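Workshop exercise sheet. Pairs work together: one partner reads the sequence aloud, the other fills in the structure field after running the prediction. Swap roles for the next sheet.
Pair: D.N. / O.F.
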Amino acid sequence: MKTILKILLAVFVLSLTPTVYVCAQDHIETPLERKTRLEREAARKKRQQREARERRENAARERAKRDQAAARERAQRQRQQEEAALKKWSIVSEYNEGMALAQDGYGKYGYVNEAGKLVIPCTWASAGLFEEGLAQVMDDNNLFGFIDKTGKVVSTCQWKNVSSFYEGMARVQDANGKYGFIDKTGKVVVPCQWKNASSFHEDMAYVADANGKWGYIDKMGKVVIPCQWENAGYVREGLAGVADANGKWGFIDKTGKVVISCQWKDAWPFEDLAGVADANGKWGFIDKTGKVVIPCQWPDAGWFSEGLAAVRDSNGKWGYIDKTGKVVIPYQWKEAGYFYNGRAKVKDSNDNEHYIDKTGKIIK
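Structure field:
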């Protein structure tokens, strides 16, 4: 009996003893050691998971950086291609004095020579053809000035409006809307005092005073024909067209004397002959005595230049006549300009522009 009691007591004592683990080295792991080991294993697992996540995130960031860099490169190449395309210029005018207008993709203007080389960069907001070695240009402030054929500014952009140089003078308009004239150095020769003005022809320009009456000045700005006419035109071959108070046109000489009475509805300048419109609005041509030498028969007409004048028939088509009234270039054009240096600009029924020679042949 005592033996059985000893065995039961031993079993009871053993049941109260904590469970322990035996290591490979026969070390028995205590509960505290087990807890520490499990915490280390959990921390190691979390660290491994964190490091794996960081590796994935870093890889994703690197991929994003590469993708962004590639996208920037593609965008930069596209911009460069677009800019290169925009910077390409094209010729947008005829040649005059060996230069033609060029325009780039930004809408800026420059000049190209007859060898096809861009000699003045496309930097101007607007520009005109060269006349007498100078060309009018407009800056980004919508002000006008003049440059020479090297691109040098000879008259700063300060004018509200300008005309090309003729006979060494250019008409300019100041900020107050008044007109005057400058020379090729940009110096104001005729002060801006006129309500309106034309370019100089044969050393005279027609100008309008504050009342809107027209007269003529010389290159010093002196009034040589008083402002008394309702309208006026260029002096050409010593005569100028003027309109009286009734709106009828005639011609005066350089002294202001009326040499052809005011009887026409409209009139063009002389080149041996002058175009005039009768009371019915039909155009013909007179000589310097006022005699009608080509009967008034066309609904519209231009002036003679280099021996030919544009006339429009009853169907709205334009052709050209010589000084005998003979049609030498048939009626076929929607629009027709005057001849200059042996060619004239015309427009066909599809609004395409061409240049023709004096035989009517398209040359450009």
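Discussion prompt: DSSP finds two helices and 33 strands in the chain. What would you look at next?
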